[in-house]
Amino acid sequence: MSVNAGWFDSERIIDSNGRELANTNPNPTVIYRAGVDLNTSFHGTDLLKIRVETGSGGALDNAGGVLEPNFGSSLDYSVKPPVNRDMVIGRLYYTFKPSTDFIVSIGPDIRATDYVDRNSYANRSFLDFSTQPLVNNFILFPVSGPAAGAAIDWKPGQGAFTIRGVYAATDAANPGNTGRITGTSTFARLLYPNPGGDRGLFGDSYQGTVEIEYSPTRNFALRLQYSQGEVFNNRFDVVGANIELSLGKQLGVFGRYGYGRFENTAFGNIEPNYWMAGVSLRDLFQTGAIFGVAVGQPFIDSNIGNATQTSLEAFYNYPLSQNIRITPSVQVITNAGNQDSNGDIVTSTLRTVFFF
């Protein structure tokens, strides 16, 4: 549950195509997301997960999503689940272990981001950062929402290397090119304003991602990634890197980088870059508290707009009790939508999370 407000310091805000999005500040809002996991195990080492969840209105229930809708400024937990006060199935999958170091997950409702590009300091929007390009590698996941597919996690001999892979297909229950495709990233809809595709489990839009992690100690991890697939009948290829380093028990530094190629977009064949970096400090003023600050540029490409958007977020997560956490956060967006005429956007959020 959150309270959110935001404002900007220019006459108006335009999107990447020059369309006006706002000429007055949006009103403050109250946001909610609720979910319940139903977990079942048949053998003790497997898991059948069914998640039932609802939310207050998707990307448009917060100021960041209203003022900058394409490059991940909406709060991550507002977009997930992408519902408008409907009760939906948010996860449905089965996980099992053919061997002690090999894990397989398969299901009709998964998220690619559950299996790759994880980070100890910047990955869980109910605990740390809420700005999407700070939670995941923004361009690595053109398919970021509900999908059907499978994932593997292999840690040979429980050593320093881990190999992960995931395949995710949106609208897998639809055998033909009818209806609206859900599950793609907001930037995919900017690149391809006339979405279409063959649908189904092996039609588009889909993506496959492979990740190799090297973690010789608990204090360091480097993950190298590659995504390939099709979004709205057009191919993409993206490489990425994800790094984290713990400096003692309290301080951590982390970052991500991505480079991709997207074909036949509304802006031509483009090759965007992405990066983010940040620092996190735990047990600040209170045992269990988390402070974090990070900055990133979600979509660097000179073909889109005349500038490069920069997103910054700072938060302080304070535990009121073992089951309740309250988090004030501030988000600053400059050159929103890659447009230099847009003034700075500032949003503030007070997030409260209940665990049970």
From TrEMBL:
SUPFAM superfamilies, sorted: Autotransporter
Positions of transmembrane segments: none
Domain of life, per lineage: Bacteria
Any one of the GO BP annotations: carbohydrate transport
Record's signal peptide: none
Molecular function per GO: porin activity
InterPro entries cross-referenced by the UniProt entry: Autotransporte_beta_dom_sf, Carb-sel_porin_OprB, Cell_Envelope_Struct_Comp, OprB_sf
A cellular component term, taken from the record's GO annotations: membrane
Similarity annotation: Belongs to the OprB family.
UniProt-recorded name of the protein: Porin
Organism from which the protein derives: Dulcicalothrix desertica PCC 7102
